[in-house]
């Protein structure tokens, strides 16, 4: 998953992907990651957009960039949530989507809270 690799390259924390396709008609995957501060949130967002632009993918929607606390990038098939660590704890998206299966991320992506992580390469 290119977005997850781009986030990992900018040292995003707790990168987790959920298959939400059975729960939502608007997307297949949620990718969630966090950062220690607003500046790093923006850096991760920039890296994801740059990497996916290289694959001819542009977000159809972007929200929260001005505040830099929780930025949402909607690429239709995947929605990326980059959150400030405090907001991630407060909103607890993992708790909301706990019934959805996690998606195995590539080995070169840092591992999420559940401790999984193996090879794979989907968009």
Shape: globular
The oligomeric status of these chains comes to single chain
Strand order of the largest sheet: 1-2-5-4-3
What is the average per-residue confidence, as pLDDT, rounded to a whole number?
A: 89
Number of domains: 1
CATH top-level class: Alpha Beta
Sheet/helix structural class: alpha+beta
Please tally the β strands and state the result: 5
Q: In percent terms, what proportion of residues is strand?
A: 15-25%
- What does the radius of gyration come to? 13 Å
CATH superfamily: Beta Polymerase, domain 2
The CATH architecture: 2-Layer Sandwich
Distance between the termini: 5 Å
Extract low-pLDDT stretches: 113-123
Helix and strand pattern: HEEHEEEHH
Organism: Haloactinopolyspora alba
GO cellular component, one term: cytoplasm
Subcellular location: Cytoplasm
Family: Belongs to the Iojap/RsfS family.
